[in-house]
């Protein structure tokens, strides 16, 4: 009997949580399909008259620089991810498979670095980036995204420990050198870890706001393109809503298809 | 194998570890099941066995070649800025020209005595309390969804989803929700609440609204971490408890809670560090107006809008020290029983 009551309360609380999560998103979705006039005469919870009114999305994408933002984000994303994967797997290979002087120091340096809130150290990182002449270039962002990723290295090291050393040794007996072992044996075996890093890091880069806002003032990334809607389109909520939905849609698609990987990745990324 | 591994190693190639292991060739036979140390020295011995002259020096440098890029970027983008920041914080510097106006601890004195700067710490308290609510909510849902529940994948997905959203998008979604006569006011109207406050316009309410937005955004992360930890508890513990007639609450109290202690501890540091370094949501939604400026917003404005890089560096260092102290305390309270990477 009391199990029945607690089960009922359980589902009530779950449905309540679903409403709290989805309601704010739904009303923005509704607004994005409304015409200017319709928006001003209907309440936020009223459904749009025409679910195929894509005018707002087109206007937002074209006038709001969202397309350029998407292209720029993709460029930065692909290069940064490739860089992170090579740098991270190589470092993990060295740390896990070699005993070398300074190995402990390297691990400790990575550990301590996780404690520094990166948003505050931008005060000084900014001077370095502009000293390198990279201010207002995509290269600045790529360098920062590659350089600040410690979680990726942890995931790689963690996974590397589960790859038997006997594989390295067998390759070595066949005359492979260290580089060949890394490239032909280790890297292919790290695929699951690489997939995890691509997902987690990809989402992080896609969502990053402050770095593009600070370092790439003259070009749009997806976040900064959306942020610019605060200015000229500030009062046209149906356009802002459409732009917001445009930014959210890719996340929904990725999430629906890669749910399991994302959960796994986050758990292994945050705990270890 | 033993032929080439015995004998002194004149170059000291594999470092001190080699010296420990090499006089005992028998060890290397079962080495693959030994500790990493013996494993590594075995590797380097194998490397040496190839015996090309000159490859010794190369193999000594190999690991450094592999870590060079990662360590180089780490030093360039984390440690060098941190060291510079320390230096800037002792100078009165505007971000241009040479850093040569040494003022000692004046900037730090300013941080602690200027009420305009110090008072922003109070704003963190809203987020700090919010973080606790967030952990409580996440723990509740993680617990009930770890038992058999219909549609549990759907519920998990929905609860976790906000964490993946773009910060600017979340900011806009809630700007829309909090508008006067907007969604929230309409919903409250159904429940007879006729005169709602200005959620973002009223300085006495704005921080609650922003902290609530932050809870909405980040609860999913806590949820998924807790859920992962709960599911790693062996299920026969529950079965045994069930047979002994333990209630759900008792199962939670005596099995789940101790089982996930470590991740709760970790979430606690993330909560403290996170509430001190809140930035995106208030910056995007209110730009720090109406008393919603957080310490990070203040720091970045001091650096980039007011060009007081010295003072801003001191603020950043103060924040860094607080985060380090909190982490240290957390380590003391929840010691890490797992062997770490080193």
Automatic annotation (TrEMBL), chain A:
It is a multi-pass membrane protein. Its main location: membrane. Pfam families: BPD_transp_1. The keyword Transferase does not apply. Keywords: Cell membrane, Membrane, Transmembrane, Transmembrane helix, Transport. It is found in: Cell membrane. InterPro entries: MetI-like, MetI-like_sf. Belongs to the binding-protein-dependent transport system permease family. This is Carbohydrate ABC transporter membrane protein 2 (CUT1 family). It comes from Rhodoglobus vestalii.
